[in-house]
Each structure stands twice: as structure tokens, then as C-alpha cells.
Amino acid sequence: MSTDISDLTGRPVIIGGGAAGLMTALELAPEPVVLLSKSPLGAEASSMWAQGGFSAAVGADDSPALHLADTLAAGAGLCDEAAASRIVHAAPAAVETLAKLGVGFDRRADGSWRLGLEAAHSRNRIVHATGDGTGREIMRALIAAVRRTPSITLLEGVEARRLLVEDNTIKGVLAANDRGPLTIATNRVVIATGGIGGLFADSTNPGGCFGQGLALAAHAGATLADLEFVQFHPTAFDGPSRPMPLLTEAIRGDGALLIDEAGQRFMADQPGAELAPRDIVARAVWRHRAAGHRTFLDARQHPGADFAQRYPVISAFCKMAGIDPAHDPIPIRPAVHYHMGGIAVDGTGRSSVQGLWACGEAARTGLHGANRLASNSLMEAIVCARWVAESIEGVSAGPRAMLREEAAPPAADPSAVRPILTQGLGVLRDRDGIERVILSLYPFARGPGAASDAALVGLMIAVAAVRREESRGGHFRTDFPDTASSAVPSSLTRTEALAAARAIVESNPFVRSALS
């Protein structure tokens, strides 16, 4: 790396090379910023894999008020209505912004947007690009824009390992590349590192997305919120590949059905049927499989012969597996897809730590509540990036900090954590299973090893899950199957999570016996 790190002192540092990080950097231009990406841009960004699209009330029969109503309904009482309203009202303008940046959204012959329908939306409001390649097309345009913007210093192959904090205030970023550790002094940091799917064995997310941003924030003392709400996509391709290829909800929006090995529709009698909210569909698929059935997405009639044209990416990987979606049902199963929880932020993306912002999936803005409405994720990342940038612009660089030398922790490795979370924090949960997760992760989370950061994030999710003794949205407890009468957001710090986990560990009779 030829860049002199000392020349970067005082600049805002954006951690993460997905849509949220790239857009924040672009919105800050022409202010000089540093963008850290641990991989080449686009290589390990969930944004690149987003098939569904970008939700926005741009249709003639639609309005932000209707979009908001659908978002609140999906969120199961835990959305921040004011925050959600502000975000969905900004979505139509964000579509235009992306189009001006060169995103080739699909259009009709008259030039209007070609809009798709997805689960729990009351209108066709999903803007797509190249059918099922929306995320890839948005990332292509954003990466090109970043590379031609001189105010953005891009450091690829650089991974943030810790945030340097004094008196609850950001002082710098401790990072590392293949040449060793490096420190960037700054009082302005944005975490835009994506989700947590890489903490689970079965996920549609890149394996490198395993909650590093949440670990950075937790070690810095930030408050995290709603961590227990993990969204399982009901239609991941049931094959050996990991990460699991996704079968976008838009296929069901086009009329595809969920069937079993006998050809029976097992969602037919449910409200909304195949287009019920994702958590309901995921649980139905999970239970049908648990009863001994195989589960399939049947697109033979709808979209039928048009499948390959409508969904070229999906058609290609299906055919590699020997399946022609126009003639064969596609095997599916639920897989971890999105995290509704994250770093608690206000309307400008500020966290509880001074000088620390978060944007995209790593942030908990209040938009998603207990269950994200389909295609609200890319929209949230693009919309909120502008407000984060505006907030950062209002904070001066401040005096140059004198940073003490610190050793970088080892690169994180989630491999020891994946089987633990997969077993105990799946689609259906109960106290015994969650407590086994806590007992297993607690030693890792307190230790200095490569599994520590991944274990800490997993432990915080488990503590939040064991505390929520109800079923709501993406969090379903078989021992508490009902939804509580009042919806209360959860919040948690690293210190609180470790204390709660320690109490559970020490109350376990087997642990007590070993300690005595």
C-alpha cells in the first residue's frame, strides 16, 4: 500500500465497502474521506448479492403512506414510526439519485419504472435492475463513482480490528493489512460493514459478513439494539453450496408457488399464502420440512417459460445444478438472510459513542422493527447514507490526537461459532437451546482468540433472545409462542451482555458442580 497513513489523519473513516459505505463516501464528497474495505470492492458485500430490488413508492397507485403502513405491519410493532416515515418518504428521490449515478433500473417501453411485487407489499413498488441483479447493478455504478471521485482514499485489503476510544469518544481506528497493523487518527468513524449471516452455517450472505462492525461497536462501548431479530429467507436454494444461493421473493410475486414432494401447496390456507411476511413463510417451510417433507418453489406455470429472461442469475445457477425452473420445481429451505438488529443510532446515524456513526445493515435505525419488509434494505442504506454524511459534515476534525501504540487483535474467524448458533438460534428457538448457545460462547467471547469477536456478537444475540420471552417477527420462541401485548425494543452493551451471560453460566448446575 503506497498511501502514507499520516496523510489521512483527521479524515472521516468509513468501514465497509458495500452500498452503505460507498454511498456515504460519495455523499461526503468533496470532503476528503478514507474508505476501508477488507476485500476488493464488491467481493464480500451482501449488497452485491441483493436480488429483490429497491422499494420505493414511485407507482401511480402508490404513496409513501402506503409504503409506511406495509413497513409498520411487517415490523410487528417494533418499528420507530417517525424514523420509518422519514426513510420511506425519501425513497423515491433516492431512486432518482441512483439513476443519475448510472444505475440501469428496469423500465417499461414508455420509460416508467418496471415495478415488481414482493411479500407483504400492498402495491407493486420494487424497482429492479436486470431482473434479479439489482444489487450487482447498484454496486457496479457506486464502485465506478467511488473510483473516479478524487476525495475518496480507498484502502482495499485493510481490515478494521478495533476502534480507539477515550472517554466515550472516538480517537482512531486500529486496522491491519497483509503488511501488519496500521493506525488512523480520526474523531469520525462510520461502520457500514453489513450483516451477520456468516455466523451461521446456512446463510445467503457472504461468509465474510459475520458481524465485525457490531463487534467493533461493542468493544467501543456502543449500545446495540434488537439483536434477537434475525430474518430467515424462506427460499434459499437447497443444495451443497455455501453461502446458499437465494431465490428472490419476486419469483413468488410473479406467481410461483410453494409445494412439497407430492405437489401439495402447504401455504395455501395461510393469510397471504406464498406472499405472507417472510417470518411466517420461513416458519411454515421449516415446520413442513421437520414433518418429513421436502419443499420446493414451483415456477413452472408462473413465470414459466419467461423464467430465464426474468431471472437470469437464478436460472444460471439452477441449470448448473441440473434444474430448469421452467420445467422443474426448485428445492428450497430457509437460511439466514438479514439482521434487523444492530448498532443503535438516531435519525442521523449517530451511535451512543461520540464520533461513531453506523449505516446500512449494521445500524438499527428503527425502520425494520421485528421483521424487515422485503427490499427495504438497499433503500435504507442509500437513503440514510445522505443523513449520515450531513451529520459528519457538521463535526470538525478537531485537534490531532496522540494515539498510544496498541497491538492489533488477530483476524476474526467465525468457524468455531457457526455450528453453535446454527443449532441454538434457528427459525424456532427455546430457552434451553438459547442457554446452550450462551454456555458455549461465553468462554470464546471472553478470550483473546480468533473466535472472540464472532463469539461476542453471537453471545449478545443470544442474551437478547433469551430475554425476549415472546414471539414477534423474526424471533419465535416455542416456549413463548404468543406475542406480548406491548412491544418493547431491546438494547444491550457488551458489558451488560457479558454480565447476563455470566449469571446464566454460573446458575447452570453442571458449571456449579465443576466450580465447587
Explain what this protein looks like in three dimensions.
The chain is of the alpha/beta class. It folds into 3 domains: 9-195 and 340-393, FAD/NAD(P)-binding domain, CATH 3.50.50.60; 235-334, Flavocytochrome C3, Chain A, domain 1 (Alpha-Beta Complex), CATH 3.90.700.10; 410-515, Methane Monooxygenase Hydroxylase, Chain G, domain 1, CATH 1.20.58.100. It is built from 16 helices and 19 strands. The protein has helices at 19-28, 46-49, 64-74, 81-100, 134-147, 212-219, 250-253, 278-290, 307-310, 312-320, 376-393, 418-424, 431-446, 452-467, 494-507, 509-515; strands at residues 13-15, 33-37, 54-55, 115-116, 126-127, 152-156, 159-166, 169-177, 180-185, 189-191, 224-225, 230-237, 257-260, 295-298, 330-339, 342-344, 356-358, 363-364, 491-492. It has a 5-stranded parallel β-sheet, sandwiched between helices. It has a 4-stranded mixed β-sheet with strand order 18-16-11-19. Helix 1 runs parallel beside helix 11 (376-393) and helix 3 (64-74) crosses helix 4. The termini are far apart.
Structural class: alpha/beta
- The rounded distance between the terminal residues' Cα atoms is 54 Å
Q: State the helix count.
A: 16
Mean pLDDT: 94
* CATH architecture label name of the largest domain: 3-Layer(bba) Sandwich
Outline:
The protein has 516 residues and is α/β, with parallel strands linked by helices.
Protein traits:
about 525 residues; alpha/beta; FAD/NAD(P)-binding domain; Flavocytochrome C3, Chain A, domain 1; Methane Monooxygenase Hydroxylase, Chain G, domain 1; 5-stranded parallel β-sheet; 4-stranded mixed β-sheet
